[in-house]
Structures are given as C-alpha cells and as structure tokens.
Design goal:
The complex is a heterodimer. Chain A has a single domain, classed as MetI-like (MetI-like fold, Orthogonal Bundle). Helix content of chain A is 73%, strand content 0%. Chain A is built from twelve helices and no strands. The two termini of chain A are 37 Å apart. Chain B is of the alpha+beta class. Chain B folds into two domains: 229 residues, P-loop containing nucleotide triphosphate hydrolases (Rossmann fold, 3-Layer(aba) Sandwich); 100 residues, Nucleic acid-binding proteins (OB fold (Dihydrolipoamide Acetyltransferase, E2P), Beta Barrel). Chain B is built from eight helices and 19 strands. In chain B, the strands form four sheets. Chain B has a six-stranded mixed β-sheet, sandwiched between helices. A five-stranded antiparallel β-sheet of chain B has the order 13-17-14-15-16, with no helix packed on it. Chain B has a four-stranded antiparallel β-sheet with strand order 2-1-4-5, covered by helices on one side. In chain B, helix 2 packs across helix 3. Classes of the chains: A mainly alpha, B alpha+beta. Chains A and B meet through helix 8 and helix 9 of A and strand 6 and helix 2 of B. The structure holds adenosine-5'-diphosphate (ADP) and magnesium ion. The site of magnesium ion has 3 residues of chain B, from helix 1.
Amino acid sequence: MAKRISYSNILRTLFAWLIALLLFFPLLFLIITAFKTELQAIAVPSIWSFTPTFENFSEVQDRSDYANYAINSIITSSASTLLGLLMAVPAAYSMAFAPTRRTKDILMWMLSTKMMPAVGALIPIYVIFQSFGMLDTLGALTIIFTLMNLPIMVWMLYSYFKDIPFEIIEAARIDGAGLWEEFRHVLLPIGMGGIASTGLLCFVMAWNEAFWALNLGSANAGTLATMIASYSSPEGLFWAKLSAASLMAIGPIVVFGWFSQKQLVQGMTFGAVK
Amino acid sequence: MAFLHLNKVEKYYGNVHAIKGIDLAIEKGEFIVFVGPSGCGKSTLLRMIAGLEEIDKGSLHLDGKDISQTHPSKRDLAMVFQSYALYPHMTVTENMSFALKLAKESSAVIKQKVNDAAEKLDLTQYLDRTPKELSGGQRQRVAIGRAIVRSPKVFLFDEPLSNLDAALRGQTRVEIAHLHRELEATSIYVTHDQVEAMTLADRVVVMQAGVIEQVGTPMELYDYPANKFVAQFIGMPSMNILPSTLFRDAPYHTTEVGIRPEHFKLIAPDQAQLTGEIEMVEALGNETLTHININDQSQQIIVRQHQRSQLKPGQKVGLQWDTPKLHYFDDQGLVIR
Ligand SMILES: Nc1ncnc2c1ncn2[C@@H]1O[C@H](COP(=O)(O)OP(=O)(O)O)[C@@H](O)[C@H]1O
Ligand SMILES: [Mg+2]
C-alpha cells in the first residue's frame, strides 16, 4: 500500500524539526565556536565559514590539566552512584515490600528536601566539611553528590520495586531463600533494569553537578564542571576556549549516555513483569 | 500432638480482627480444604501457616516443633499461589530447581527430581521456556511442579485454580487429587468453591468471618451441618430454609427448618400439607430443578428431581418431604439434634 502523504503530516514534521533545531542550536553553536579562534568567536555577526582549528583544545589541555578534572569527575560520579545505590536499594526495598503507615510520608519528606534551594544549605554544609578538614576533597564531593541524589534514587527504585509482584518474593522465601538469596537471585535480576537506569541517571547528574563542586572543591577536587567555570573568570571571557572546555567536559557523558540509551529505555519499561 | 497444630491462632490488621482464635489439628497425609466466602480469612490463615503473615496470638506447631516465629524459608513448606508467582527471569527448569539449589542438593539429584516432576505434569517439552512463553494452564503446572520437587512437609495452595477457565479447572482439580493420592503429602488447600472443597478434601474446614464454623469430611458436612451457615454454604443449589411454623412436629426451640432440594417430593396439591406455584423449571438433562413459590409467593424454594418433568410455570404443586432428613435450627442458627 502506498503511503499517503498529507499536508498536515508534512507540516507536523517540519514543525518538529524546527523545535528540535531550536533546542539543539545552542549546543551546535557551542560545538562550532570551539573550533574558531578567539577573534572569530566574538565577531558580530557570527562567522559561519572559517577554517576549523584545534588550537583551543590543546590550549585548554595546557592551561588546565584536563585529565585531572576528568579523573575527579569519574571518581566522584561513580563513587557517589555506588554509595547511593548501596543505601537506596535497601531503603526502596523495605518501603516497597514492607511498608508502614508512615512510608508515604517519609517518601514525600525525602522529595521535599529536593525543593529547597541548595544554596540554603551551603553555609552549614561548608562549615561541617571545614571542621572535618574535608574541604576540596574528593570525599566531600562524593558525599554531597550521594546525598543530593539519594531522594531521587530512593523514589525511582521504590517505583520500580513496587511493580514487582510481592508474591514472587514470598515464593522465594518459601522456597528457602534468606534475605541475601532473595536479593541476589530474585530482586536483583528482576529489578536490574530499574537499578541500572537509576544508577545511570545519578551518574549523569553527579557528573553535571556544578554548584557543590564549585563551592566545595574547585582546586584539588575540581570536576569537569568546575573546569568550564574557570574559563569564564578573572582575565575576562574567552568564548572559544570556554566552548572547547565545555565540549571536553560534556563529551564523555554524552557518549556514555548514547551507549547506555538502550539500557535506560529498557530500564524504564522493564517494570512490566507479569 | 497432631502433625500440624494450630492453637488459638489470631490475627489483626490494624483494627480488623481477621482471624479470631482458630484451633485445628491436621494429621500427616491429610488433604485439608479451607472453604468460605470471600474475605472470611482463608488466605490469611494459610499465609500465617506459611510464615508470610505474623501470628499475633496463639501458636503453630509442625511435626512437634513450635514454628510460630520461624522464617518462611525455614519451615519446609511449599506453596502454590493464586497468581502462580513464578520467577519471571528463570526458565521452567530453573523455577523448579530453585528451592533444591538453595537446599544445596547435588546437580544430579536436582536434574532427576525436576525431570520426574516435569514428566508427571506433562511439562517436559517446556523446560527451557520462561513463564511468559507459557499458557495459564502450563504456568499453573509449573507452580505445582515447583512445589512437588521439594517433597516438603506440607503443601499449601491458595485458590490455585481460580485463574483457569472452567474446563481446565475441572481437569486440573482431578490432577491435583491424583497427585495427592500418589504423593500422600499433607496438603492445605484454600478455595471459595465448595465443589473443589467437596471433591478434593479428606476434611473440609468451613470458615466465616475469621472463625471456623465446622470441620468434617465432605459427607459429614453435607449430611450433618452444625449450623445454618454451613448448611447453606455446602451443596448446590443451597439448602432451602423454611419457618418452623410450617412443621407441626419440629422440636422445641426450632425457629427454622432446612431441607435439601433433593429431599422434597412433588405430589398433587390436594394431598399435600404444603402447596406452591411453579415459578421456573430448569431442565438440566440428568436432573430437573424446579423453583416454587410458597407461603403466598413470599418465599421461593428449589426442588431437585432426578428425572425429567412435565411441569410448567404457573402450575400448582404439592410438596412432601422425608422427615428424618430435616435439619432443625434454633434462633442462633445452630442445629438441634
Ligand atoms: N494486608 C491486609 N491489610 C488489611 N486487611 C487485610 C489484609 N489482608 C487481608 N485483610 C482483611 O482480612 C480479612 C480476610 O482476608 P483474606 O484472608 O484475604 O480472605 P479470603 O482469602 O478468605 O478471601 C478481610 O476482611 C480482608 O479485608
Ligand atoms: Mg483469598
């Protein structure tokens, strides 16, 4: 059967493309700017044809030790994700499978902490880390990223676990499974999709975190997010280098996200076990 | 002490007193059926035996040991759930081996037992499938297979047939009866369907609102119900209940009299002490159920005849009964013997 092409379809497609381009444009501009010289970058109106240069990237690498920032990002993101899962999985498990009358309240309370502006807690947290001598350490960032993501992790895992019929877990108990076996052989494999997508999301959120990273650890423990910021300060703005730094900072996570896309989507739909 | 012994067992859900003190002794090898209307506490009681619900008061002994506080994994019971509750990420083989693996059986023994069970249940060709690749009836059999490979002390079934269509339900019921005869395993089976109860049970436990109304063999319950509830719950169609004023020689204190549909005889109206008008005739081939309005249309009774009937709605008929087959109830609904 021939596909009928209607005007409304064409219009809708064009409209969708327009929106998509509009959303993508800043990123495109960033990518293009990263390959310009500083002069070309500040030219008004924008220059669209130029010979691309890699100068910015090498300069960023020379000026700030990219690898160091990248390693800090990798360490804090992975450690906070693991630590978060270690706490959120048992919490979500007990809330989903052994709820009390207060469980819903606790969940709401956890979510409500995310509604407070982070800056509201900055001073006390700063002082706490200061008195423990932890300012500008990877440990401090890991802890703060974990705490920052914990409510979301518990919520996500809770809703995944809620979808697992409790009778399957009861069946395992009757079959002789203790707590560990029940977790290892039943909850983990069935809930893997949900656990993986929760972990991935929190990894990305920790990677992109800038507020706490800037305030608690910009010199030694700086993550890639703080590297970007360092290009917008004292000596004035350097658009091209800033763009190159941004590209280098978001590059790994975009690639990572691209490859885990399947896992993410699978995780979102895996709940449908009957 | 009996093999499985419940002693004054109670359960509260908040303010709901779901199980109100149950005493029950079950012997080894018995097939016990808990039957009663929906919400009477059958599943709760079964789950308390399994260890899935806490016992708030009373105690539970299995094979001489107090297991009231024992974790389900340590009770050595097997359960077939209404929803089957198969492990969705495991194949049929893995589902059936799971308990044996946890019990650290050798792989040769596991293989042997799983293959035996699969053969008994006609599952051999599905061993490598996952539950979602099976039909409802096949899933049901895997759930039973998962229970029987273990040779547990007691089998627990919670309405295992209620998700099957009528034909498959009848067939699986026969299979379960057959398995029980073969394995001679102590079994507790929960259902709201009195036909399942009557056909499967060695003894039936009739429950209502968290208490046991009567325990007995299917025929004891049918012939000698202890009260009006059991009398009406067991038997299809239900026992007819009539006011005692219609019966001149009823014992003292009788307020109501019960008569099973098959204990009426239809006779000519002019010879009978009770007459009525036919409302409907259900001809089922092997039997005929005649619905009759009596007492000036205020009450309807059902009469069962094992032959075909020429009677038509609107006709007047007379009713006669076997006096020894009457059940007399007092104002509490208890039977008067
Ligand atoms: N988890 C629960 N929370 C509160 N009430 C419950 C719970 N489970 C069962 N009940 C109540 O206990 C009573 C018995 O339920 P149940 O054992 O499921 O009945 P049955 O299996 O005979 O239909 C019902 O009144 C039901 O509402
Ligand atoms: Mg039930």
